[in-house]
Design brief:
By secondary structure, the protein is an all-alpha fold. It has helices spanning about 1-10, 20-25, 35-45, 45-55, 65-80, 80-95, 120-140, 150-165, 175-185, 195-205, 215-225, 230-235, 240-260, 265, 270-280, 285-295, and strands at about 100, 115. About 60% of the residues lie in helices and about 0% in strands.
């Protein structure tokens, strides 16, 4: 799959998408963070993901670090050179090979003691789907909706990102309509299930526990509004008239505020870094600061190979 991706890229400097892609247009927006809580909860609804995050990650003790770890990998895949994107994919695959274990209690169709592993294709597909769908939902909450042709292009391009996650094209829904149908079917399926563990982890995320970053009420309300009804109830997310009003109010003022932000602040640091690379400019202090906010470091991963031709592993995971 790595070879397939590499053979499709005409200019390795632009990476897997490039400046004319719908992938860059959508994923450069900092507003995508609006959908991060929703994506995290949808992922936790898969018992394998919840167990893996509980047993193999720093989500409980350092949720901000977990956020940085995720965006370091994903942003490098999206905005890095082809070499960086492939190195990030190799790193993620190798990291996932160590993520396996057993479910501690029965939930959904999974019995207590059943085996899970992060590189299993159906689990990978669900995590990928939550990221892609939630990103577009957040984008269209503050910016003009994409046309149907753009939605199709966005999904088609995202299949390359799925390949770097380790998901073969044959395992993906064929088009945007089929992708939406897959998500709806998953929401109602017994593949997903919420238990005490996933519920507790979800509430930690939505309340910023273990982190110095406060999560405002309107963000929790918006996340609850965007959750499928059954999963919102399973996670015991408050959604009374107060939350409905808060979410509706946020959806009114967010577009007005967001569209006034200059691109130098609105677009995420990795996108700014990629633009600087293609224009042969140095990466400025503002871009480095934005990178630190999004990824916990001033530059994207794997800027170059070492002298042996292998990719250095990041110090933190």
């Amino acid at each position: 799959m790595w070879t397939t991706v590499a053979n499709r890229i005409s200019d390795p400097r632009t990476g897997i998408f490039g400046p004319s892609s719908i992938g860059w247009k959508v994923n450069r927006e900092s507003a995508l963070f609006l959908g991060a809580g929703r994506a995290a909860l949808l992922q936790l609804a898969h018992p394998w993901v919840a167990a893996a995050l509980d047993q193999h990650s720093n989500l409980r003790s350092d949720p901000l670090g977990r956020f940085h770890n995720t965006f370091r990998v994903v942003f490098t895949m999206i905005f890095g050179t082809l070499e960086q994107a492939l190195a990030s994919s190799r790193y993620l695959y190798q990291l996932h090979t160590r993520v396996q274990g057993e479910i501690s209690e029965s939930v959904a169709v999974y019995g207590r003691g059943s085996h899970y592993e992060a590189n299993e294709v159906e689990a990978l597909r669900w995590v990928y789907a939550t990221l892609v769908e939630s990103a577009l939902l957040a984008y269209e909450s503050v910016l003009p909706p994409l046309s149907l042709a753009e939605q199709e292009a966005y999904y088609d391009e995202s299949k390359t990102l799925a390949t770097l996650f380790g998901i073969p094209a044959s395992a993906l829904p064929a088009d945007w309509s089929a992708f939406n149908a897959y998500n709806r079917a998953m929401w109602a399926s017994n593949t997903l299930g919420v238990n005490k563990l996933s519920r507790e982890m979800a509430h930690r995320i939505l309340h910023g526990r273990g982190s110095w970053v406060p999560v405002p009420h309107w963000y929790r309300a918006l996340t609850a509004a965007w959750m499928p009804d059954g999963l919102r109830e399973a996670f015991a997310l408050p959604y009374s008239e107060r939350e409905e009003r808060a979410a509706a109010c946020a959806l009114r003022w967010l577009p007005l505020f967001y569209r006034r932000i200059p691109g130098t602040l609105r677009y995420v640091g990795p996108y700014q870094e990629a633009r600087a690379r293609l224009q042969a400019r140095s990466v400025g202090l503002l871009t480095r600061a934005s990178n630190r906010f999004w990824m916990g470091r001033p530059r994207m991963l794997f800027p170059k190979t070492n002298t042996k031709g292998t990719m250095p592993e990041p110090r933190s995971q």
